[in-house]
Amino acid sequence: MNKLILGRYFPGESVLHYMDPRAKLLAGFIFIFIVFLASNWQTLALLTSFTFFVMCLSGVSFKVYLRGVRPLIWLILFTVFLQVLFRSGGTVYFDWGPITISHNGIINGVYIFFRFVLIIFFTTVITLTTKPIELTDGIYFLLSPLEKLKVPVDEIALMLSISLRFIPNLLDETQKVMDAQRARGTEFGEGSLLKQMKTLVPIFLPLYESSLNRAEDMANVMEVRGYQSGLTRSNFRRLTWHTKDTLALVTMALLTLGLLLLQ
Amino acid sequence: MAMQVKLSGVKADYQLGPIRSPLVLNGVDLTLSSGSLTAVVGHTGAGKSSLLKMLNGLLLPTEGEVQVGDATIKPNHSKKALKEIRKKVGMVFQFPESQLFAETVEKDISFGPLNFGFSRDEVLKRAYEAAMQVGIDPEGGMMEKSPFTLSGGQKRRVAIAGILAMDPDILVLDEPGAGLDPAGKKEILTLIQSWHKTRNLTTILVTHDMEDVVRYADNVVVMEKGKVVMHDTVYNVFADVEKLAEWHLDLPDARRLQLKIEHETGKQLPGVCLTPEELADALIEVGLV
Ligand SMILES: Nc1ncnc2c1ncn2[C@@H]1O[C@H](COP(=O)(O)OP(=O)(O)O)[C@@H](O)[C@H]1O
Ligand SMILES: [Mg+2]
Known about the structure:
The complex is a heterodimer of chains A (263) and B (289).
Chain A: H1 21-34, H2 41-58, H3 62-69, H4 73-86, E1 92-96, E2 99-102, H5 103-129, H6 132-143, H7 153-183, H8 193-198, H9 201-224, H10 243-262
Antiparallel strand pairs in A: 1-2
Chain B: E1 5-12, E2 15-16, E3 19-20, E4 25-32, E5 37-42, H1 48-55, E6 63-68, E7 71-73, H2 79-88, E8 89-92, H3 105-115, H4 120-133, H5 152-164, E9 170-174, H6 182-199, E10 202-206, H7 210-216, E11 219-224, E12 227-233, H8 234-239, H9 241-246, H10 253-265, H11 276-286
Parallel strand pairs in B: 5-10, 5-11, 8-9, 9-10
Antiparallel strand pairs in B: 1-4, 1-6, 2-3, 6-7, 11-12
Helix pairs in contact in B: 3-4, 3-5, 4-5
Bound molecules: adenosine-5'-diphosphate and magnesium ion.
């Protein structure tokens, strides 16, 4: 449970920690798009070195990032396999009905693998260096134009921040319930798949119950403290845009340009 | 059958993702004799809960070893062997009602014993025994109810019964009275004490209430910053007033009143008075009443 690092914040003092969350979010969006520009080895090398540079800036050890990839490794390998098996073109190494392993398939598989890993690394940098609450503030700001279209951005942001707020509690609670059931003789991750699934019931039911209770408490507290949806609220935390944030976005633009030129 | 518990040079920490926490147990040496009922006291964060988790391998030592009966838990202990230990060590967590999950009270109480491989008949017998012990009348239709429909106090009892039904040799309880009203708390601790006596268990109990210590325990372990700083009889621990003040620990009401009387009158009362009765006797003895 404690091994899951995707979506966790690591307190620190790096430049990235002090950047505006809006800049980081925008950079993240841009990155996800430009990853698809990496279609030859030069662009791939450029993007990889850029990602490593950003990872170094965060001051978090590489081991942490590798852990972040681990839970997703099967998903990644599965996608890569599909690419390798069903893409055709170039020299054919193996042919059996619809399944062919060809030169292009393998190359594409490699690209897909790198794109996946780079996206995970880059987004992990963002979540590791940004407090969840800052992320929601950033998302709120970036979504606020949608308010014109009657999208309840305020409520969405509130829901997001409440959920994020309770993730650590939920993790703690999961740990506690697992320990309690272990003490009653449950062995997790052992035996057949069916057996393993059965061990989940004694964890999820208590968690479900306590989450419902907590949600109800929360709703009551909010009501007592005068929360009403649909009102305009002022913000306690202010986001401030610095030169380094502009610089970061300029860097992203230059990177995009570089990728386009190398293509 | 009671068992001895012995920790030697135990150090432990928690792994939080890639980071390790500072040592939460920092060189604990402790022997709990067979058949004793020990209260563990100390501040929040002193490592009491971690010490308890150590006893059934939910937390493994990074150094040192834990002997539970004839089994020994070492760093890198194999998972398989832990199940044997967990069968012997019944652990009641803080707010144990949050572990209830089954459709009926009976199924929930039976969960532990079934996991440890007792036969169905045996399990049923134990479940009913344990329910009786915690004051849940099996005849009254309680066993068929959903645990989620019970009151807080009843849930707590069911959860404790779920551990007692495992028939452990060592009973470990983390603040079993927390969050209950005084009467409910007293009832639960009394039933634990009586189970301890009739089954001849070795029992360890974390509490913040010094009255509980006096009423139920025969030994006290004081924890401070991941270490056991004192382990003695209840009498001796409460005799050492300076040390307790240094650790910012409370005294039982009678003892506090005794000190106040001694301070005001300048007279020394005989012995250490832990209960109102003892204090009254001492006052009579020195002729203050
Ligand atoms: N699951 C956990 N993960 C990380 N740290 C923990 C965990 N449980 C307890 N700790 C830390 O270990 C220390 C001792 O905690 P604990 O054993 O619960 O003390 P106590 O029960 O005396 O209050 C505390 O500093 C606490 O923050
Ligand atoms: Mg505790």
